[in-house]
Recover the amino acids of this structure.
């Protein structure tokens, strides 16, 4: 597991057991645990023994569905099993919760943090640090199910009885737990979360922040930057705003002005560029890599400049999104990779087998490998994302060139020669 830098540990009684030289070693460890980068970013470090850093991406868990029936809670139990199996097989250093952690529009209680807590429990229980971004379901308003108002339907839960002294005076609005409330709960519930509130001027878009991955030897030496962005939805439009794009431009220029450090991005809803990059077919042909392409890309409502900022940064390696449960591909777009994660949870639509995209970052030279680990342990879709992608148009041109060279020499040229001699005969029959 990567070294934590915001983990708080009590150390006073250590002095009773250790002599000065040992104390300095221990102090060094403790200081590095609290380390923040020069720019105040929270720092994670490459695993010392493996010299790498492994991330599991959990996408679209959708906890809290249909709590009034057996079906919903059963899905949540299955989602915990799915995450536990992936954590068991991969033993990652870090987990990214890629949005739609809960289905708030299906949760008839005032505080959805209860379900958020369940969703993060497999990671927290193993002592693995994590970070999260919001999806379009996380803070949505409760939508009353139609069947509750059918002939035989007596709503099993009409109003929250909490804080209600008068009959019929309960809280029936269930306006969803706000992004800030969910984030405050996550951050207040232990020190393993690396999530942040993001700059206030971007609110209600909350999960906007950067984490630094540093070398195993030197916490001040960045190996990669991980950017997390809130792609909206739920209580406000599904968009990465121009204000977010400007914020990203500013902070990335500040911390990585010469593009020396590779950068990767996480948000929930695909940007419009995903539509352009998507495979044309129902399977996933080269140069894309993946196992399912079962859905059309469902994008953010508009594009307000985020992709332009990314395209202008040669340090950007890849973007990872969730949202479309039936897709798990990575495809090239310009000079970077656009990737889906893999539907991890049993909540939400679709019955495609559950899994998680795994990332592995190594240093000297920098490499970013990825694959998909299924719940049953099967592994597929290996890809090297630190290699510059070859676009499909380039592949098409190479293919045409190969065909021309091969068939041109063998058949095209003799055919042409034959036609030319025929033409000569037509113009001047005596010449033959
Ligand atoms: Zn979803």
């Amino acid at each position: 597991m990567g070294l934590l830098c915001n983990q708080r540990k009590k150390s006073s009684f250590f002095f009773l057991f250790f002599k000065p030289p040992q104390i300095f070693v221990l102090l060094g460890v403790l200081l590095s645990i609290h380390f923040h980068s020069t720019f105040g970013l929270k720092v994670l470090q490459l695993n010392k023994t493996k010299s790498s850093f492994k991330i599991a991406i959990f996408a679209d868990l959708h906890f809290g569905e249909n709590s009034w029936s057996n079906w919903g809670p059963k899905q949540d139990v299955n989602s915990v099993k799915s995450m536990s199996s992936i954590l068991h097989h991969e033993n990652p250093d870090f987990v990214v919760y890629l949005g739609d952690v809960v289905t708030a529009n299906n949760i008839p209680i005032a505080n959805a943090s209860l379900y958020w807590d369940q969703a993060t429990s497999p990671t927290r229980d193993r002592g693995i640090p994590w970070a999260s971004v919001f999806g379009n379901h996380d803070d949505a308003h409760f939508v009353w199910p139609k069947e509750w108002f059918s002939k035989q339907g007596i709503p099993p839960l009409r109003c929250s009885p909490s804080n209600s002294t008068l009959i019929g005076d309960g809280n029936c609005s269930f306006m969803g737990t706000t992004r800030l409330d969910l984030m405050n709960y996550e951050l207040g519930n232990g020190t393993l979360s690396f999530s942040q509130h993001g700059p206030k001027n971007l609110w209600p878009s909350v999960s906007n922040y950067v984490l630094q991955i540093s070398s195993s030897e030197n916490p001040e030496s960045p190996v990669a930057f991980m950017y997390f962005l809130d792609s909206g939805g739920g209580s406000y439009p599904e968009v990465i705003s121009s204000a977010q794009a400007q914020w990203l431009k500013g902070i990335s220029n500040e911390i990585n002005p010469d593009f020396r450090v590779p950068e990767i991005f996480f948000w929930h809803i695909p940007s419009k560029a995903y539509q352009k990059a998507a495979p044309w077919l129902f399977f996933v042909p080269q140069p894309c890599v993946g196992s399912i392409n079962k859905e059309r890309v469902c994008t953010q409502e508009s594009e307000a400049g985020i992709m332009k900022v990314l395209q202008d940064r040669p340090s950007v390696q890849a973007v990872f999104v969730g949202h479309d449960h039936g897709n798990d591909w990575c495809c090239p777009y310009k000079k970077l990779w656009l990737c889906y994660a893999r539907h991890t949870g049993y909540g939400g639509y679709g019955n495609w087998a559950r899994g998680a995209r795994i990332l592995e970052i190594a240093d000297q030279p920098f490499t970013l490998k990825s694959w998909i680990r299924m719940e049953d342990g099967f592994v597929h879709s290996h890809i090297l994302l630190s290699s510059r992608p070859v676009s499909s148009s380039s592949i098409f041109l190479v293919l045409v060139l190969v065909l021309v060279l091969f068939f041109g020499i063998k058949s095209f040229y003799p055919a042409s020669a034959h036609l030319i001699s025929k033409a000569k005969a037509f113009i001047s029959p005596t010449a033959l």
In short: The two ends are 83 Å apart (CA to CA). The chain has a mean pLDDT of 84.
